[in-house]
Amino acid sequence: MKRKLLLAISVAGLAVASAKSYSIELFQPAMLGNTELAAGTYRVQVVDQKAVVTNGRKHCEAPVKVETADGKYNSTTVRFSNGDGKMHIQEIHIGGSRTKLVFNE
Description:
Keywords: Signal. By secondary structure, the protein is of the alpha+beta class. The protein has one domain (19-103). The protein has one helix and nine strands; from the N terminus they run αβββββββββ. It has a seven-stranded antiparallel sheet, with no helix packed on it. Strand 2 and strand 3 form a beta hairpin. The longest helix is centred in the first third of the chain and has 16 residues, at 2-17.
């Protein structure tokens, strides 16, 4: 019984550890889903089809689609749309990779 519990905990830990993690910098407040993020550095982790965005104690989740671009991005960039007077995160391009995170509003 203890072995099964230990195995289950180990597998769960590996699943979380295997999630890709990226760092982004927001220079102005922005909306991600229904959550407003202040300017600052955030860690973005993709788990299943959700992006988990954290900055210290601040935590939010949003549905995300991971796409592959034709070429590598030179740097990590965040694309916004300006709706209802607020900036909304639409895409995050991951520098040094061909990975693009697309958020549906």
